[in-house]
Amino acid sequence: MVQTTNGDGIRTLTLDRPDQRNALTSAALRDLEAAVESATEPVLYLHGAGEAFCAGADLDEVKALDAESAEAFAALGQRVAHALESYDGAVVAGIDGAARGGGVELALACDIRVATPDATLAETGVKLGLFGAWGGTARLPDIVGTGDALDIALSGRTLDAETALQMGLVSRVTAEPRAVAEEIAAVDADALRVLKARMRDDADRETQERREQQAFADLNAKTE
Fold first, then answer.
1. What percent of the chain is helix, strand and coil (3-state, nearest 5)?
2. Tally of helices (H runs) and strands (E runs) in the chain
3. Do 125 and 212 fall into the same domain?
4. Are 102 and 132 in contact (CB under 8 A)?
């Protein structure tokens, strides 16, 4: 369900279930988690096979969950999202076609979200009596602000690529999202990893600045 290829500093993670719009079962989530955790490349590129990025969680599996297994399923999705977010290289989501529910949540965990002009994004769980539970309720407000996050989540409305760009939900709209991953893979890998760590640092400002100074000095020593 998750195909992995490596080359030119990029590990490509392909959600490969196109007949189901790449809906994610627990087995697929475990495959994705393993593919991220075993990666060493400077850049991860996450995308979907076929005409969709990811339809989210597999609803047939979700409908069969009891309370205990539903909590475990949510925890698994959160682990995968955290693995993407905490990866020490850059993580790029290439969103082509539909991203729904958990698909949006996985994209939110990536560093950079790049959409094609045909991409659409929606948190549709509320229409099904559910909501995204893979960390999206925390990440979405951080990325687009509380007001827009509530609008997106409570309405379940579908955003086209340009609207998502205006909100800051995606950072670029281009016909070739993978080109962004290639652009990033061409930079210095050590600087890339250090810069991501610094920008993801949630310590107090004084601590961040001290760490920034040390990181700059360490990188500079490598270039001497």
1. 55, 20, 30
2. 10, 10
3. no
4. yes
Give the whole-angstrom CA distance, residue 81 versus residue 57: 13
Identify the CA nearest to 141 among candidates 121, 163, 167, 171: 167
Predicted pLDDT at 215: 92
- Quick one: 170 and 123 in the same domain? yes
Q: Which domain holds residue 216?
A: 188-223
Same domain, 46 and 97: yes
Ordered alpha helix ranges (H), 3-93: 26-37, 59-63, 67-86
pLDDT at 130 over 90: no
**Is the Cβ–Cβ distance between 33 and 78 less than 8 Å?**
no
The reply to whether 102 and 212 lie within a common domain is no
C-alpha span between 78 and 84 (Å, rounded): 10
pTM for the model? 0.94
- Look at residue 1 in the predicted model and tell me its pLDDT: 84
Alpha-carbon 48 to chain mean position: 12
Mean pLDDT (the chain) is 95
